Amino acid sequence: MPRFLALRAISLLSASLLLTFGATACGPGKDDAGRTESAPSAAAGLPASLTSQKLNWQPCQAPSTAQGGGAAPGKLPDGTAWECANLKAPLDYAKPVGDTIDLAMIRAKAKGDGKRIGSLVFNFGGPGASGVATLPGYPQARALHSQYDLVSFDPRGVGDSAGVTCLSDKELDQQRGETHDLAGTAEQNKQTAAACAKKSGKVLPHVGTESAARDMDLMRQVLGDAKLHYFGISYGTKLGGVYAHLFPKHVGRTVLDAVVDPTQDAVQEPLGQAKGFQLALDNYLAHCVKTPGTCPYRSPEDGRRRIAQLLAKTGKQPLLTKSGRKLTKEQTVIGIAATLYSKEAWPALSVSLSDAEQGSGDNLLKLADGYLSRDDKGHYSNTESASTAINCADTKRRATAKEVQARLPEFRKASPVFGELTATGLLGCTGWPVTGKADTPEVSAPGAAPIVVIGNAGDPATPVAGARKMAEKLGKGVGKLLTVKGEGHGTYGVNLCATKAANGHLLDGKVPADGTVCS
Length: 519
Known about the structure:
Elements: H1 7-21, E1 29-30, E2 36-37, H2 48-51, E3 58-59, E4 83-90, E5 100-108, E6 118-123, H3 131-134, E7 148-153, H4 169-176, H5 182-200, H6 209-223, E8 228-233, H7 235-246, E9 251-257, H8 268-288, H9 300-316, E10 319-320, E11 326-327, H10 329-338, H11 346-357, H12 362-371, H13 383-393, H14 401-414, H15 419-424, E12 451-458, H16 465-474, E13 479-487, H17 496-508, E14 516-518
Parallel strand pairs: 6-7, 6-8, 8-9, 9-12, 12-13, 13-14
Antiparallel strand pairs: 1-2, 3-4, 4-5, 5-7, 10-11
Helix pairs in contact: 5-14, 6-7, 9-10, 10-12
């Protein structure tokens, strides 16, 4: 943390838990070689070889390890097959006739009554989530298939789109099992950054959100759409906001769900997440004690005390697991956090915490592995590497161990459980070989079509205040705020009211009234 857990990771965690527990424009910077990092140019025209390219759609193969692995996608219930292709895009938008990269894409062509609207492009967040691997396992999208080609992609640096690589699986396991003070963590991050530069140095200066937004406009043109119809979730809302700013006249029917706050910088964002996860944990404890027989705690206060004891215990002596790997304090916190993205996972959290108190770290380690995109064979996707690369391309901030040490009290006050880990995350770009851009994205989009912005009151990763700020910053008449009084990260397909509003906008062009509240 702080990153926004990809929807595919959430779905995989949910499935695992159900089976296991029966739970229901900026100045230039420098790249890895000290060169000047090129800011994508709004004025740079793209050659016809890119804008008029024909995509070679073929039956999709199984996702690669970098995308998260798994089986090849099956057909939709109506018999529509998934197709995959590669889109060529400039490596550097400031040099549009220079080197290119391939962006992995997936689609299911619309199959309805002939009222096709166009393509609906999904981004599932992260940053670092493979859209190619995620979209087929996102059944909520099927309600939109009658009028849209369902489309997603691996953003640049992610999965099979010039995916960033840094450490081997063995090195990642070793790193996850180690415990360091802040200075040690900073040094470890420097070593990781050097490995990223060695293996992926050419692409690192060009994986920022602005370049990904330009990729989406190229995608729009190649798909033959006059407007970009878009569904962004979590980090995908930031990407959608940046796109709207760059291309306001190209904005089609757009929904942003689980919204990133565009006004928060690289310190405020993780601090907000610490508060959000603490709120979600407190909500879990309040609910837990009302379900006697399944809750390991007598009261919320008892729960907070015993969780603190568990963290102190794993901080001194990691718990053993059947795999031979050990559950560290950091992995314990990540395992807890993973269950707070969905209320459906709360019973699994009760079981996992109870088992950990009895000395077994298996369940919490499994949850942490899911969050960190490690499969049961010990293979990691490139989600974490891509997430770091994209986040570090999007911020100039490079914190030191001394600076983080000074901020620890503020973070621990925000969250006794998650504060320390989120503060340590401030060191994530230490030693990064590319100078990033301004901390906060520009999302103002005067003249854009209305954008539906949905926030959930109990969202741990993207607190509801972010939705309010996004709607405000998109501009008057553009951002249409809808808030949900619920728990979890994201509302589409979970809350009936919000889902109907989103579908009404995407399918019928009906814009919900600004300020709508769903209970």
